[in-house]
């Protein structure tokens, strides 16, 4: 059963949020000219997008890092496929920073020819589906589904905005040689944020002093991001994002929270659909906050 077109529309095999982008705009991105200095955060929803947006902003913008500029994340690192503020992306000064949930084959062709840089962040999908469930129930533009079991089945079938988690991550990873790309996991960032920031800086060719690095790590901690109105999307009227009083854009930001929502039967149902396919991917997630950090993308 196809989802209601009140909340989303399907284009080229992917579902998009209704009313804030169009099929024509998505198609136009194929020819969007990419610069060598452009940096993209690519994710499936609820995998750590805002976190890495914030880290990029802190690395590149001294005014954000030292607190002298009150510019929110939507202006620092806007969404490629959802130009919510009608910004002139073409003439935006370098380095341009973007976020995207697009499938690998829908991003600009220049990006698929290794122009610019991509940081792809993945998260264990049980935490993704639980976080996405809570997220969809307070975001105005998404369909409210109060029954987690119903949402879980939609997620497993890829009948949610941005479609299938597995197709998304598999597509980006399988086609990694087409991109100048760094893969990270939410879990390794959670376990070793400083190490992740250093990895990002090395990939970007950015040299920070020890003091600057300390400031980035401190400001990028989940608790500080949640308190920072510039970083958490809580007060951005243009997006018409959340219904007041129903939830928080940044909720828990932890590993293993799926256990507080999923029943044993739901976890087993999830495993029956995804687990075998996940094991075929060349990286390992951790599923509990107490597991040792042995996750990450193992490239041959």
UniProtKB/TrEMBL annotation:
It holds the Pfam family Sulfotransfer_1. Keywords: Cytoplasm, Transferase. Residues 36-280 form the Sulfotransferase domain. One of its GO terms (molecular function) is sulfotransferase activity. One of its GO terms (cellular component) is cytoplasm. Coiled coil: none annotated. Its EC number is 2.8.2.-. The keyword tRNA processing does not apply. It is found in: Cytoplasm. The keyword Nucleus does not apply. InterPro entries: P-loop_NTPase, Sulfotransferase_dom. It is an enzyme of class 2 (transferase). Belongs to the sulfotransferase 1 family. This is Sulfotransferase. It comes from Pelodiscus sinensis.
